[in-house]
# Entry
Amino acid sequence: MKILVINCGSSSIKYRLFVIDENGYNAELAKGLIERVGTDDAQIAHQVDSRKLASVKAIRDYKTGIAEIASHLHSHHLINDDLAGIGHRVVHGAEAFRESVIIDKAVVTQIEKCSQLAPLHNPANLAGIKACQEIFPKTPQIAVFDTAFFQTLSPESFLYALPYDWYEKYRVRRYGFHGTSHRYVSEKAAEFLHKPLNQCNFVTMHLGNGCSMAAIKQGQAIDTTMGLTPLEGLVMGSRCGDIDTAIVFHMLAVSPMALDQVRDSLEKKSGLVGISGVSRDMRDVFEAADKGNEQAKLALQIFARRVRKYLGAYIMEIGSPDALVFTGGIGENAWRMREMILADLEHLGIKINPEKNQNLNLTSAGAAIDTHEGKLAVLVIPTNEELAIAHDTCKLVANVQKE
# Structure
């Protein structure tokens, strides 16, 4: 069946079109991106096979953007009346959703309620859902939540040491994000090791512009680094990660910044770019460090140190990991950062092969970079959140068709 995956950001629409058969075989038919949604000069990029089409036109809202995508797919005869389902990435499902669901009015209402927890993302996700419901009224719509994978966390893992009524009244807790990615790579890691997922223990590391880690025991998440929002945890491209919360009050007291300026700094001017003063892109930071930029060197060291800190904690939580798994733009491509993170950890049974690490022969199945001397497998697995969304959509649609 043909499955369209839609990911609406705060000012963008990403899409991918898959065909998936009953045995799970999949092929990508098309993909694309619309940037600067809400303007008269939106950037549009479509790709079918190796053919790329780019244009600039007015895309004033999400409905116009998705209509543009539908028109493109129809004009290239990629869809007719054979679109089986549409899968939507939804960032925040709070405690309402433990798994992917078929979208109905009740689901829309719940997503709206979660928008307070993700004000930059959920409204855009909802706009994409409503646009698809209008443009494809007969096609089932599926919501796949970034937070769902972490609904297996126990209260001692997801609760903060705050007044308990903050949780009861306002649902303040750790939710976690990048859940679809962590779920996908843990499933692929189990396949790589030829073990059932429910017998596998992993530490998964999604390292990109946004970064998070997860402790996975017997196939289920038991801890994660991101919290109520994606700001907590690791050092990221422009987000600070873990800090003393009193820093916020201190800056309000000693600086001329208002609360929204402090928040903007924590989310957009911190992390790699904040420390290095160079860029949020790790490639640029490494380049600057190689040229002697001491702040860039420091940014890289702090980034690696924070990952190592959580790695040690999660190995303690899990007890006996089967593998460490790197994914995301940095995790998959920055061999020097992988090397920094895993340096001198032989006492934990972690030892990588420098040649394998530097000259990675990476396929969709992943690759191992550990040595036979190490006790732990170290894997690099490309994430594919869109494909995970497509598979969830396919399963739910198939269940509806059986009924």
